[in-house]
Hints:
Strand 3, helix 1 and strand 4 form a beta-alpha-beta unit. Helices cover about 35% and strands about 30% of the residues. Strands 1, 2, 3, 4, 5, 6 and 11 form a 7-stranded mixed beta sheet that branches. Strands 8-9-7-10 form a 4-stranded antiparallel beta sheet, with helices on both faces. It has about 325 residues and is α+β, with helices and mostly antiparallel strands. It folds into 2 domains: about 5-165 and about 305-310, Ribosomal Protein S5, domain 2, CATH 3.30.230; about 175-300, 2-Layer Sandwich (Alpha-Beta Plaits). It binds L-homoserine. L-homoserine binds near residues 16, 21, 143 and 189.
Amino acid sequence: MMHDEVTVWxxxxxxxLGPGFDCLGVAITDFGDHIQARRQERSAxxxxxxxxxxxSAPVRSEDNTAFVAxxxxxxxxxxxxxxxxxxxxxxxxxxxxxxxxxxxxxAAFAVAALHGKESETDVIREAALxxxxxxxxxxxxxxxxxxxxxxxxxxxxDRPEHxxxxxxxVPLHLAVVIPAIDVLTREARELLPEHVxxxxxxxxxxxxxxxxxxxxxxxxxELGALVMSDELIEPRRAAxxxxxxxxxxxxxxxxxxxxxxxxxxxxxxxVCPTLSSGVDVAAxxxxxCADHGVDCLAKATSVDPIGVRIAEATPFTx
Length: 318
Ligand code: HSE
């Protein structure tokens, strides 16, 4: 069904999850983007921040993943409809929680829904990847795909259309902390080695295989241990997040089974054994940031199994 106006919710996501660099991510609850797409008379794509958005920094349209993804979606649909986007974020951009990917997925999906094409997942994915590329410089899908499909998603790093959901049979309790530190994904990628030894690559591949098995079998203890197993990427980025060691140690002391950077940071996430331990671990991570004089947002969260969806819609009337 075509629509005059659609508001969608696109969840944020954790990516990398230790050894899943550029290929594994999981959608989470509590963080994400509300994106409203509204038809307008003027034949143009325009956008503004919703006054309730928790982040509303000035951004050029060309650097706004929502704008770029929406424009790509219109082009891919061959549509010359005028569309206005209203963007409300619940986190900030550059957090490591796939906020730019949530914007891209939300905008592409909302524009598709205006045209009654919200089930065209392949086209939405490609438009969202066009948007995501504007901030990270790469078409990797480790945040876009969980935001689109929900749950854990594994994808080939250089071919995000080759993707699989990895279902976990038990509820996963998580805690997330976003220290108020700027980490640019592009810069965090520049710290990474261009070459690794065969032994290191084989070890990394085997850890990722074990991680997928832990998710599928619901072995949360093993999952917690594995998110801390990456030796290729995370150790090189840790210095970008000043309270990194303190956050990890505080989370572990309060019961977390494992702690790691989400994406390129500065956010870290913890795998927790129970719902209440997620709350305790979030408090411990908050206190660790405070000890370093770093503001943060810390929260218990869980897996969003659905991915992007329509929250409100007005049918097409003209
Ligand atoms: N996999 C990406 C990285 C996620 O770690 O650089 C950030 O977009």
